[in-house]
């Protein structure tokens, strides 16, 4: 619970730092992970719903791909403004606003009647969700120093593969079991049922989380001082002044070349994310899996590999304090897996195995990559800069679904689209290794 008392100065009392950060993680991380799980389920559930939308509304691959793209248009336009608002009202209230909004939009999506109302609903969902991801990453940077943050980022990112597992099974189960009940189609029940949790979780965030370590009652004064000292030490290594963090405007963030470098890298990360999150069900369906329940079960397999891999890689990256090659190696493996999927020729076994490799590499690389901005960027550029990096990556996320959708419509296959996507990922690897020097990632054990 929040405590209005002022910041506590560093104390001479010895502090067990590992125990302190375990306490913080146990209080903060479970709720953030649950919120992220629900976020991705509501963002990607159209991957399962598309079969019902095709049946009832006649939506083909091009309409579906454009619907995914329109989501990211709203996301891009409102990502930075959302984080600018966060700088004024605080991370906790921002997360509450964002989650309640996307829950309402998800429920309303059950009323779409044609492709135009579908596009409007997807655009509004992007507007509602804008700011959640960079806001959550910035929130972690207010509680954990960089040497511990990749592990926390890995735990946070567990929400993505878990959403792939739980979301596929739950969404498939909802559509399989509730279709036709009360006169509603299976996909209508999907949006209705999955839109309620974020509204309830918004209330949980409001009453459970706090913006700063100094604002909570469950840390001792000595623990608060130790955490603040660790966070300030991070800023001194980056040339910052330490203490309370400041925020800068969009213009200043865009003038930092490091933001542009990371933004170009994020284009590769988001291209991978789309292949894993939005197109995996379509790839499995094209391999010959037609039943919606089986489609959900097969779609849940690849994220299992992602959970194990991202935790191992994230922990190893923190232990060695090496970020560039951990992310680059994972992305190279992912690009090769994506290319191999394009040549799999409809084998369900081969497709699922390759998707598992792709998911494991994607989640591992994403975990390490998104620990880099708060290390690489100055304290002044971090808050707005992370939002800009995410927005730049979202341009690729907005373009690639439509590209893949139109390619599938034109050729009858996703193969060419997957091959182009793998090339984009490899270009991101080059930008990361050339643009980000190892000496720029200064961290302290």
Automatic annotation (TrEMBL):
- This chain belongs to which protein, by name? MFS transporter
Q: Where is the Major facilitator superfamily (MFS) profile domain?
A: 28-440
Protein source organism:
Amycolatopsis oliviviridis
Q: Which domain of life is it from?
A: Bacteria
Looking at the UniProt entry, the stretches that span the membrane are 24-41, 61-82, 94-112, 118-140, 152-175, 187-209, 259-280, 292-313, 325-343, 349-370, 382-407, 413-436
Query: SUPFAM superfamilies in the record, alphabetically?
Result: MFS general substrate transporter
- Keyword Zinc-finger: yes or no? no
Cell compartments where the protein resides? Cell membrane
Q: Which UniProt keywords apply?
A: Membrane, Transmembrane, Transmembrane helix, Transport
- State the Pfam families in the record: MFS_1
Would the keyword DNA-binding turn up in this protein's UniProt record?
A: no
Record membrane topology: Multi-pass membrane protein
């Amino acid at each position: 619970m929040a405590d209005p008392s002022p910041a506590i100065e560093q104390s001479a009392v010895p502090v067990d730092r590992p125990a302190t950060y375990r306490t913080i993680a146990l209080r903060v991380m479970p709720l953030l992970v649950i919120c992220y799980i629900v976020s991705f389920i509501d963002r990607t559930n159209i991957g399962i719903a598309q079969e019902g939308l095709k049946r009832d509304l006649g939506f083909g691959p091009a309409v579906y791909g454009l619907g995914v793209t329109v989501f990211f248009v709203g996301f891009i336009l409102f990502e930075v403004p959302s984080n600018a608002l966060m700088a004024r009202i605080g991370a906790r209230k921002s997360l509450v606003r964002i989650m309640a909004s996307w829950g309402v939009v998800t429920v309303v999506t059950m009323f779409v009647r044609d492709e135009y109302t579908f596009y409007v609903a997807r655009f509004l969902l992007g507007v509602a969700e804008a700011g959640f991801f960079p806001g959550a990453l910035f929130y972690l940077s207010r509680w954990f120093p960089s040497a511990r943050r990749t592990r926390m980022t890995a735990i946070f990112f567990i929400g993505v593969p878990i959403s792939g597992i739980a979301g596929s099974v739950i969404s498939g189960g909802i559509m399989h079991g509730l279709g036709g009940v009360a006169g509603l189609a299976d996909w209508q029940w999907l949006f209705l049922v999955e839109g309620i949790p974020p509204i309830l979780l918004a209330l949980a965030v409001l009453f459970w989380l706090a913006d700063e370590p100094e604002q909570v009652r469950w840390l001792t004064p000595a623990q608060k001082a130790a955490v603040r000292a660790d966070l300030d030490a991070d800023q001194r290594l980056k040339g910052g002044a330490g203490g309370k963090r400041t925020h800068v405007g969009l213009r200043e963030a865009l003038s930092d070349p490091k933001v542009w470098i990371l933004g170009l890298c994020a284009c590769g990360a988001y291209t991978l994310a789309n292949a894993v999150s939005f197109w995996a069900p379509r790839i499995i369906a094209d391999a010959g899996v037609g039943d919606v329940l089986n489609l959900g079960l097969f779609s849940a397999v690849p994220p299992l590999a992602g959970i194990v891999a991202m935790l191992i890689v994230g922990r190893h990256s923190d232990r060695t304090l090496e970020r560039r090659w951990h992310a680059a190696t994972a992305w190279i493996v992912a690009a090769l897996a994506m290319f191999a999927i394009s040549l799999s020729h409809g084998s369900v076994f081969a497709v699922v195995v390759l998707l598992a490799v792709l998911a494991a590499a994607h989640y591992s690389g994403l975990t390490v990559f998104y620990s880099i901005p708060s290390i690489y960027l100055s304290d002044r550029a971090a808050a707005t800069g992370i939002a800009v990096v995410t927005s730049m990556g979202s341009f690729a996320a907005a373009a690639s679904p439509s590209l893949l959708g139109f390619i599938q419509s034109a050729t009858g296959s996703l193969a060419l689209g997957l091959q182009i996507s793998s090339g984009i990922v490899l270009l991101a690897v080059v930008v990361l290794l050339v643009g980000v020097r190892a000496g720029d990632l200064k961290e302290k054990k």
